[in-house]
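Morning run. Coffee first, then this:
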Amino acid sequence: MAKPYEPEKPDPIDFEMVRYYAARADEYDDWYLRRGRYSRGAIQDEAWRSDLQAATEWLGSQTYRGRIAELAAGTGWWSPILARAGQLTIYDAAPEPLAKAAARLTDAGLAADQEVRDAWSEPNRAVDGLFTGFWISHIDRARLDEFFALAMRWLHPGGLFAFIDSRQDSASGARDHQPPTDDVQIRHLNDGASFQVRKVFYEPGDLEFALRRAGFIEISVVTTERFFVLGSCRRPE
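And here it is:
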């Protein structure tokens, strides 16, 4: 099994997030499916499922085609939608969730290339489409412009960049998770292990301005009723 990406001088929080998502791979879907510590009761869980369905339909409506790169793919919840739209490559800094994503695609009768690769690594090729799910909220506020410039470098002229991410809502995470303090949150696994994770709840307007600064066009950043922010834009021709 390939080793996870380890930068020469890692930011301690970024490095710990890789360890966290590697350790969380077997239980990550509990969040999407509202199982165990993530269940918040019938009313809250139904609101979550409604928003998740809205985000799923939104992603399915995006005009992806050709070669698509999914950065920080995790366990691949969104990967089947992308794999049906084009030739997908999934990337993640930790091999454990990436293996889950590959298995999810296989179970759906789909396939994608895969590579253990950090989302901050320079592009190794140009693609027609780029996607990130719940990655932007892990980016330090001081580095948001840097990442959007990197996203631009991934794309052919006219290429599509889209993302799904988190809005701040007390019912989004596990029952034993407290809100972030100074954009850092303590996360627990089912076995009680604790990790520090950067979690930044960007406002749609802030994301729109940052995408515009990076040079993107056709920018749209919208929200679901409660839980998600949905963004799309293109590299100019």
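The chain has seven helices and nine strands. Good start to the day.
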